[in-house]
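Researcher: Quick one. two chains, 327 residues in total.
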Amino acid sequence: MVGSLLMRGMLIGVLAGLVAFGFARIFGEPQVDLAIAFEEQMAATEAAQAPAGDQPAMEETDEGLPGRGTQAGLGLITGLVVYGAAVGGIFALVFAFAYGRLGAIGARGLSAVLALAAFASVVLVPLLKYPANPPAVSLDETIGARTTLYFVLLVLSVGGMALAFALARRLLAQHGTWNATLIASAAYVAFITVVLIAMPTINEMPAGFSPDVLWNFRISSVGIQIIIWAVIGLGFGVLAERVLGEFRGSARLAGSYR
Amino acid sequence: MSDITFAPAHQPVAIPIAEVLPWAIFGGLLLMIAIYFVGAEEGATSLISGMYIHEFVHDGRHLLGFPCH
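Model:
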């Protein structure tokens, strides 16, 4: 049962990654190319200003490292498909746990609600503080701090969302689905507001970087995530319903199914 | 909760925790390792030496919103 759901979650995640790749290719890649062009221009200006012999070694086309073609093609599709399959699988596991424990909501509805909550906590909240950045915008030497802060915020956000669901579940019987959801959402928003204010801000934007490229990059990054979570949320529910329908059939509830 | 009007005709039957847990632990762990390799390997931390994985998933990492170089 759970294994079957997990497999379907990963399968729909692969599909989500493929659709996201099409979108990323059209809308994301041009922005990455523009950012890299800016990065190279910056490096060239720096190299021209530095005294001869003191120039930093450019690590272009290092031995055997993937070039731009691979990065924008095979590398991009691999990254998105692996990410899609992984979040799809984890999504299926969360679904398997939540199903039947959050009131009378059916498989398709639960899948959509969970995907929305996942998008809010995994994508939306982290990007409010630490948005996606194209190449050239961040400093190499702060990667450690930036990665730590990003994942701390991610864990707090996802943990807070899990607690919000637990709270909603507690309030369900007394206040009804609508009010329980509202109260739990308000609690999550309040918690996240405090977290976002408390966490340090990162601003390493180099002077002269095109705001248009930045905006287009970030909006296509969000677009990729919307596609991934929409495909998973809407697609997984349909697949899960069939699995769970069979399950219920064997549990002698077939008569009430549809 | 049987008075919720938009509820489906059937009551969803929860899968026992004991059945979910082993999948969640082992499956979840493997999948998180997969996300780690796409999102963070050879960036802030590095299990495998070199920059091949980082450069290979470079564009995906940027576009998925992970911190990258």
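The CA atoms of residues 62 and 68 of chain B lie 6 Å apart.
Researcher: Thanks, that's what I needed.
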